Each structure stands twice: as C-alpha cells, then as structure tokens.
C-alpha cells in the first residue's frame, strides 16, 4: 500500500487546538483574579473632593451664604467685579474682614488705607454692606473661601482596557468570549479541510475513485430561459426601484436630524437642562415675532460676565471642564471682554452661527402665534432641547407634519380672549366643546402660503 503523508496531522492539530483553548482560559481567569492588597487604591473625583472642614466655621453653611450674597460679584479663584476670595483669610486680618464685610463704605470714608486701595483698584465701586451677617456667618464664609482648590484625580487603570473591563464586571468580558468562539470556529474549519484532504489521500492510495460532480447548466442561463421568473423579477425590480426613488425624492429639502457644528459650542443640556433657563429668556423674540431670533452675545454676557468657568462636575467624558472653559473664552474674544480688567476692550469679532431650522420662503410660520396665543411648548416642535448637548433638527418640518398637528391638536381657549367669540360660534357649528386647529381654519392653504 502506498504510504500516506501526515496521517497524524489531524490528531496533532486537535491537540494544538486544545492547548491553545486552555491557554485562553488561563489568561481569562488570570484577568478575573482580584487585585492584590499591595495595589494602590486611588480616589475618584468624588472622594478626592472631600476635605476636612477647617476650625472656626462651618464650610457648608459658608458655601450657602457665599452663593446667596457673594457669588454675584466674587469668584473663588479669579477676578470678577470684586477680587478673588480664595485664601483671603490668610491675606487679611480677621477683625478687618469682619468690619469690611459689614460696612465697607464706612471704612473707606474713615480713610482706612487697605479699604481705600481696594476701592480705587475696582473702579471706585463700593461693596454693599451686610449688617445682617453675624460673626458666625462671616466665620462660615471665611471657612468656605479658605478651602484649598480641589483638583479631581483620575482613577488608576490597572492593566489594559480588556483586563480592566473583565475585573470590574466580575466575569469574562464579551470581547474575550467572542474571540475564543471565533478561534474555535476557525480551528474547526481548518480541521474539516485537513480531514477532507487526508481522506482523499487515503482514497487515492487505496485506488478508490472519487466521482466528480456533474457539470450542469449555469444558473444564470437557466434563469434566462425561464420567462416566468424573468417577468416576475423585472416587476419586483421596478416596484422596489420606484419605492426607493419616491422615498429619496420626498426627502429633498427635509433636514431632520441636521446637527451642524457651531463656531462656539453651546450646550442646551447645561443651560436649558441643568440650569433650567427658559427658552424664551434667550429667544425672547419668539413671544412677539414671526421668528425666534438668534440671541445676541450681550444676552450671553448677562450671565457669563461673572461666569468665566464651569463647575468641575459639569464636565463629561466627551466634553471636559477645560473644553467648556475654552468655549467661554471664545465668547470673551468675540465680545471683546477683558477678564483681568473686567471691562470691554471694544475689539469685537462676528460669530457666524449656523442656522439649523430653516423653512422655505413660500411657507409662513409665526412663532408668537404658536408660543403666546397657542401656548405651545418649545419642545413640541424642537424636541427634548433640555437634553441636547448639540442642538439638532428634531422634527421633519414638512407640510404633512404640520397639517397632522393641526388636525389633532385642540386649541387652548381657557382664559384666552383671542378665541372666545370664534370658539363660541364654531362650537355650535361643529357641535363640539373643543376645537382643533383644523376646525378653526388651520389647514386652509392661505394660512401658510400666500
């Protein structure tokens, strides 16, 4: 009999596969092992920010008073309308600070050198007196401003990303399991190929003939000769093509989901969400005008004249505190605001905002009619703005979308003198107590196109 080469290759390959599989398991269990006692435990941001309260005052109470009475003019670490206050208790005498906080104007009038110097340095604007504050209240404020600046520490990552994920999850990570399964599947395919090759060699050595597959008619040729299948396929292709062509043409001019990058990053999540600033505070013209308007930078400076940086907890994994502070710096550059001098330089730069919602010129829409008269919330059309980090177009703003809203939305007539007479007459006409916008003529062509 003819000798067949590598007849033990299958067994050897199986043994190799088992060895590799066991090696993978060993690696996985090693990654799952708990951290040793010698490994350092690093505090996270929340733990690192906890400091012991200094003697002489209640830091928590001082923070509350500071935010209520002092934060409008003072910051802890940077100059504002008044000087930075962190560590002021180390720079000034405690008795002097008590007198200054209670009545700074009296100290200036008395000719106190330090008081006069501060008065002249800050444009001769005297700090308002606070006679209502007790000695304990002032001590609490001083205890708060004496706190050292907190810098969040990054958590230490032990091992690579996969190992950390397996350790914290308490089990094998999904990536490792999928990797093992893919490896096993690849080994099975290789084994099947080698087994088939070995059997063919055995057959050739034993003189066994392996019948070849009969060559049949090519499938494309059989398909072409079948006129019924050709006809059905052509009809299906035409219908599918028409469906997608219609869908594509109906999307022309529809920018739902449009989310441009603005020259200055503005987080609606922080302003409308975290700080609960009403939409119409910035877009004030929505109450009285056709358009909502783009707020001028002076509106931004109403707050950011005193807010040059965000809180540490405001930052996220995607947008850090440093990123937000840099965007506020862009605002200052645009309006020409000098943070150190707390004054405008007069050197301004235009901000080229990118418009997101843009109706065609032949469609008329009035914000005041919807916002003031109709009492429609901004989120009805613009979506969950308070959750958007970057603003995007939430609704399609198509004619069908508007008409459907007019057909299903009841007009708010309670306490609205604008609709009293109209509502009374139309209610009798339609025999209903509540009227939709459509019943009041909201789907007439001339309402939006004229």
**Describe the biggest sheet?**
2 strands, antiparallel
Counted beta strands: 2
Low-confidence stretches: 1-7, 32-55, 154-170
Instruction: Return the domain count.
Output: 5
- Total helical elements: 21
Helix content class: 40-55%
Explain what you see.
The protein has 450 residues and is mainly α. It folds into five domains: 9-35 and 159-205; 59-145, Orthogonal Bundle (Cytochrome Bc1 Complex, Chain D, domain 2), CATH 1.10.760; 219-250; 268-396, no CATH class; 398-450, no CATH class. 49% of the residues lie in helices and 1% in strands. The chain has a two-stranded antiparallel ribbon. A hairpin with a 4-residue loop joins strand 1 and strand 2. Helix 1 (9-32) packs antiparallel against helix 10, helix 3 (59-70) crosses helix 8 (135-145) and helix 15 packs across helix 16. The longest helix has 32 residues, at 174-205. It is flat and about 120 Å long. It starts with 8 loop residues before the first helix and ends with a helix. Residues 1-7, 32-55 and 154-170 have low confidence and may be disordered.
